[in-house]
Write a structure and sequence with these properties.
Elements (H helix, E strand, L loop, with lengths): L1 H30 L10 E3 L22 E3 L9 E7 L2 E6 L1
Length: about 90
């Protein structure tokens, strides 16, 4: 029973350690709100990320345009994650 409690504590510490950088990023985004018209269903987002997470397009070295869209990505785009803007979930599409 002690072993189970110790393993659970280690798991909780590991999860908390991973959550702190994500919370810091969310705080940075929340600190700089942008004014976007309500009638615009498309939001342009500029992000910095690890190269390993960048979209891979074979044979192309050009910059890739990424957008946060509702409800889904357009034809030819791929969903790479989720954006949270004004309390709503958006598809992060490139």
């Amino acid at each position: 029973m002690r072993t189970l409690a110790i393993l659970a504590a280690i798991l909780l510490v590991a999860l908390q350690a991973q959550a702190e950088p994500l919370q810091a990023r969310a705080d940075e985004v929340a600190a700089a709100p942008e004014q976007i018209p309500a009638d615009n269903p498309e939001v342009v987002v500029s992000l910095a990320w690890d190269e390993s997470l960048a979209p891979k397009h074979p044979g192309s070295r050009k910059n890739v345009a990424c957008y946060c869209r509702i409800p889904a990505c357009l034809a030819g785009e791929r969903r790479y994650g989720t954006c949270i803007y004004q309390g709503r979930l958006w598809a992060f599409c490139c």
